[in-house]
Design brief:
The protein is of the alpha+beta class. The protein is 57% helix and 15% strand. The chain folds into 2 domains: 6-83, no CATH class; 87-191. α3 (86-120) packs antiparallel against α4 (135-176). It holds the Pfam family DUF3560.
Length: 192
């Protein structure tokens, strides 16, 4: 056991290990737990303002405060420096968003191909024959084509959205690393 982690023995002798970190890059406190938290501990950190970050598999507080620091010290014993930098985390996030974008683009292309195959079955300019026995099937077919086009457009827009989110994530990380931004953040922390 390292001196910066604390272990708590539960009733069934499974040890829970906590690790607390602080990142001056984004002024956030993080709590890493080896096991699922019990209700009492979860309530304690939830009241302190920590939220679960599922992709990072940790609890994070939006900003450092003395109260949040005290909660982490009571659980982990010590607060270490964060291993990953803000830029690393933002790159991971941008990669995730790019994957989402790629998946939506592929789905959009598939939906468009399906619509093309449906539309190719109908001769160009073929009207729906009102009162004919084929009217109901022709209207259903036209509805499938229309809904397929809407789905393809929606998926394409989602792909663009996720690509923009990926780019914004990287822009945000670069902004946070600017010297003037760091200086203002340090001044704000010192003022608190």
């Amino acid at each position: 056991m390292t001196p910066t982690t604390a272990q708590i023995m539960t009733e069934n002798t499974v040890s829970q290990t906590y690790r607390a970190t602080y990142s001056p890059d984004d002024n956030k406190l993080r709590l890493y737990a080896s096991l699922r938290l019990d209700e009492e501990t979860y309530s304690l950190i939830n009241k302190a303002g920590f939220r679960w970050a599922p992709k990072q598999k940790l609890f994070v507080a939006p900003a450092w405060t003395p109260g949040r620091e005290d909660v982490l010290l009571s659980l982990a014993g010590d607060i270490e420096d964060e291993d990953s930098t803000l830029f690393d985390r933002q790159e991971q996030r941008a990669g995730r968003f790019s994957d989402y974008s790629d998946r939506r683009a592929v789905e959009s292309e598939q939906a468009l191909a399906h619509v093309d195959s449906l539309a190719s079955a109908v001769p160009l300019g073929q009207p729906i024959l009102v009162g004919h026995h084929s009217e109901r099937r022709a209207r259903r077919h036209a509805q499938k084509i229309e809904s397929g086009m809407k789905r393809a457009v929606m998926l394409f827009e989602r792909a663009e959205y996720w690509e923009q989110r990926a780019q914004a994530s990287l822009r945000h990380a670069k902004y946070k690393e600017r010297p003037d931004v760091r200086y203002r953040r340090i001044k704000k922390i010192e003022a608190e």
